[in-house]
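Go through this pair.

…
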Amino acid sequence: MSCSLRPVGRAHRARLEQLTRSTGFADDQLVGYACWGPTPGTAATHDLYWIAVDRERQGAGVGSQLLNEVERRLMADGCRLIVVETSSRADYGPTRGFYETRGYTRTATIPGYYAPGDDLVIYTKELATGDLARAAP
């Protein structure tokens, strides 16, 4: 299974909304989504807001391919750090495992952020190494 990352058009709008606004394709079928952007006030840090994959395609490598493409594009643009936020709830265990398996470090937890007993879990991954990663702005 492979997928490509490309802009979507009006013809994909309904499916896009089903996937929470996505951009991963297998052939011409919209199957996943990745959304990221620069973090204001930082030096080359980006937030990864969403990766969503059609439930029928989960576990088939679509999310990994999307994440790899996001990281590739960010590295090409000189990004040094990616930040991901998720929940501590048990049903988000697979999400946390997804990022941990792919080299993301659990960097912080904010207790009760979403609701009592539902903490914010923050993951980071350094894309740059050496001086760039450690240089002060």
About this structure: The chain has one domain: 4-134. The helical segments are 13-18, 62-76, 93-101, 131-134.
